[in-house]
Amino acid sequence: MTDPIRPTPQPGILDIAPYLPGKSGAPGSKVVKLSANESPLGASSKAIAAFASAAEHLEIYPEGSSRILRDALGEVHGVDPVRIICGNGSDDLLHLLAQTYLGKGDEAVMNRFGFSVYPIITMATGAKIVMVDEDDYTADVDAILAAITERTKIIWLANPNNPTGTYLSDKDVRRLHAALRPDILLVIDSAYAEYVTAADYSVGLDLVGEAENVVMVRTFSKMGLAAARIGWMVGPEHIIDALNRIRGPFNVNLPAQLAGAAATRDVEFTDKLRAHNAKWRQWLTAELDGNAMRVLPSQANFILVLFPDAETAARAFGTLLAGGYVVREVGQSYDIHNGLRISIGSEEAMRGVARILKSMEAAQ
After folding, report:
1. pTM of the shown model
2. Are 316 and 330 contacting, i.e. CB atoms less than 8 angstroms apart?
3. Among the CATH numbers 3.40.50.150, 3.40.30.10, 2.60.40.1120, 3.90.1150.10, which is that of 13-43+268-362?
């Protein structure tokens, strides 16, 4: 029997592995969700109030350029709003970058355990994703540079990286950029910047201000506004102009714009969230890191725990789930079959996770 005639996807689309989000728990069970790197403190009360205020104007289209949000971001981060573009989550902006600067025959380079969205958006354009090995779960500048060819158009760099939590210092990022051809775009994905405490880290704004081939992408999802889907990017005006030509005309809704602007200005809440994360990230790392479990040093709002083998990791996932905690398996999406990514949650959740995993370790 021959296949029916029907619309056919472009070549390569069906070769793309779809994005797999973290589990939310078993049906009918009540679990603490530690699989999606969400805020354990909820959202800024000012952002919640701003979001609610939009209900009075639901019949009106939002301002198309997200001016309300761009003005707030420019004010707090010291950036000209003209050099800011906002999106329906940072994924929206990453898709736009790929669509604008990649095509059939092009290549984009990323580190082996980088964000799993990068291959999807690269391959969707007909371009090839080139993955390079890491240095102990950390992006390797020399390996990235060695992978560059005449076809390379983009370097995807999550800093800190998801799912490992590791990062490159400002010095290393600058060394990477200095060795790039001027026609190669360096995308610094700083989704977890709010949680970094390392003194030698830079969010990338200075480098963006100095170069014509660097952009910095950010998100509100990790600081309490995941449901609102808000992302933003800073870049040279010629890149912002190019993306504005193809983005959706109303790609950030009014409630999101208002909530994002309020959250941006509520630096007290952001500081509170950062302090909570730093305290319990350090505590959980110290509690779990040992002979049977290795915890990678993280600068994000999660830790990656490495077990002796995939079987032990699967058993740990099941034991945690049975105990009321769902964490992120990273085998299928990131090829780290002996690892579990655990979001930093409430004190109660962190103590519960530590108790279960340490009891499991003691029983072995």
Report:
1. 0.93
2. no
3. 3.90.1150.10
